[in-house]
Amino acid sequence: MYAVELDRSKRLLVISAVGHVMAREVKGVAQSVRELLQQTASGFHVLADFRWLESMDSTATPDLAEIMDQLTKKGVGSVTRVFSDPRKDIGLNILSQFHYGPDVTIATFETLADAVQNIAVRVDSPSA
Q1: Residues with Cβ < 8 Å from 26, sequence gap 6 or more?
Q2: Which of 48, 91, 94, 128 could make an S-S bridge to 81, C-beta 3.0–4.6 Å?
Q3: pTM
Q4: What is the pLDDT of residue 88?
Q5: Coil, strand, or helix at residue 107?
Q6: Helices 61-74 + 23-37 axis angle, to 10
Q7: Rounded mean pLDDT of 15-21?
Q8: For the residues of 41-103, what is the DSSP string, one character each?
Q9: Residue 79 burial by CB count (10 A; 0-12/13-18/19+): exposed, middle or buried?
Q10: Tally of CA atoms within 13 A in the half-sphere of 27 that contains its CB
């Protein structure tokens, strides 16, 4: 499962992945992100929760890149990722180098608590 939701009051886009994610699911999330971003101002934050991700189809890479490009184009302020097992990164660190600009802060954590704390600081202090 791959899902996305937007908390407008916190300016937080949450992307979650669980189990084995198929390429068609990533394509669907890319479409959902596109729609949600139409109603979002720049400077928003992203929480990508991959704690329960087992694997992702390698053919999903173009859609992952498209999601990153959409976020960059809309002016994402920060991306916070959660991987309980850093070996399950699925290539996001490499993709990030090509699809996020130098102004996008990217942080990766092993626990959701640490990730949420990082985001809370950014949400409470927009200049962070």
Answers
A1: 2, 56, 57, 60, 63, 64, 67
A2: 48
A3: 0.90
A4: 74
A5: strand
A6: 10
A7: 95
A8: -TT-EEEEEEEEEEEE-GGGHHHHHHHHHHHHHHT--EEEEE-SSGGG-TTHHHHHHHHS-TT
A9: buried
A10: 7
- Only one residue has tokens 């996305």, namely 4
Tokens of 100: 């996020």
For 49-61, the pLDDT digits (tens) are 999 999 999 999 9
CA distance linking residue 112 with residue 114, whole number of Å? 5
What is the tens place of the pLDDT at every residue in 79-111? 999 998 877 777 888 899 899 988 999 999 999
